[in-house]
Amino acid sequence: MSAYLGVDVGASTLAVVVGDETGTVHGRYRAATPQQGEGGDIVDAVLDGIRAACEDAGVDPASIVAAGIGAVGPQDAAAGAVVSPVNLPGVERIDLVDPVARLLDADVRLHNDATAAVIGERFAADGDPRNLVYLTISTGLGAGAIVDGTVLAGKFGNAAEVGHFTQDPDATLVCGCGSPGHWEAFCGGANLPAHARALAEEVDTSLDLVDCGPADLLDAAGTDPLATRLVQRLGHWNAVGVSMLVHAFDPERVVVGGGVARNHPETILEPIRDRLPTHTLRPPPP
Question: What is 162-197 written as a DSSP string?
Answer without folding.
Answer: GGG-BS-TT-S-B-TTS-BTBHHHHHSGGGHHHHHH
